[in-house]
Request: fold
Amino acid sequence: MQREAISRRALLKAATAAAILQGINVRSEAHRSDTPNVVVILADDLGYGDLSSYGATDLKTPNIDALVSGGMRFNNFYANSPVCSPTRASILSGKYPDLAGVPGLVRTHAYNNWGYLSQKAVLVPEMLKPVGYHSAIIGKWNLGLESPNTPTERGFDFFHGFLGDMMDDYYTHLRHGINYMRRNQEVIDPQGHATDLFTDWTRDYLDERKQDRRKFFLYLAYNAPHVPIQPPEEWLKRVREREPHLDEKRAKMVALIEHLDMSVGRVVNRLKENGQFENTLIVFTSDNGGELRAGANCGSLRGGKEDMYEGGIRVPMSALWSGHITPGSSNNEVALAMDLVPTICQTVGVSPAGNLNGTSILPMLEAKADRLPARDLVWVRREGGMRYQGQDYYAFRRGDWKLLQNTPFESFRLYNLKEDPEEKTDLASQEPQLYDDLTRTLMLHFQRAGRVPWERPE
Reply:
């Protein structure tokens, strides 16, 4: 059986390499000395209103705020789904989640698993190999628990982190009593708070890259501030003393976010100490909106994590690249997590694998354009339980118009986000022709997605 598994992995690797050679073109500028390193920092369930730079008044996030002020802030940036795995699939593939085989969460138990990363989906580390980039993921993977869908089998040169969907405890790092912590393929049992571990491992990785002339792509995926809300005790004590009016739930959330902010600062400081900061594109964002039940703040937006309302899918995002992105700039264009892959590829001089759904935002980052091409946009989530019963629910956007359902069993609602940013007034009955047109277009997406298997093979 072990020999068969190795054989399957070898065949998969060969097939992936062939696909890359056919689908990726290297442009000459990829070999310029000023091609940057790329660092994508992903928070887990960070609400749109849970940074001080995005309006929070009861917490302090000076390090993340420095990334926001040091580059371009996006006011209308979106996750590709209101939950973890689907957005992570889009961040790495540049495709809609259901077209990458991950319409819902990848979980331990088959009865509650709603995604399987497609073997046809080429991930960004594979796209960067032709131009010599070293690629690493540190932190949360959540796109596969076993071969062939582990990070080093899907293009990453290095993995140090957690395979699962969430930790049941930030200190034991277990999920359902199972240890999903890995260094590449090795099972490890580190001691300490997960946020600190991921930060320390990142700083070690940056030190290693300093000794190597190859450029690097680093995907740093924290699991904070996802539940369980477990800040280190000293951080919670600090918040209680400074903000005595906060209830316990909110105080813990604030402390966990501030601890995350400190960790991001430690990573950025190491980039600076190593002389890597000046030529590194740093992107910071979240995989979906904040979990309101856990004390998150999504600002004035309606809803939160799991919702197709704005609070579930609109997230903070900033991009910093010294000498290329104007400090203190901002952008109001609608962009999505899946846009990061074509952006990274254009930045490093590679034409990405074909059939991507994302659009490069590099021209806007470099102030060479102020608009993106008009496009229809789709959000999806598949989920179990009695509320969802294993079915998909969607949101669809065209311009200012947004069609959505918040469970698979309710009719679509229609909102005009320009006139009604809080999504209070359903205009479906007043705009029947538009409602019909948007719904029919969305049905075409259902058909495309239906061709992509999402079940874990038996």
Observations:
- The longest strand covers residues 376-383.
- The CA atoms of residues 203 and 270 lie 6 Å apart.
- The radius of gyration is 21 Å.
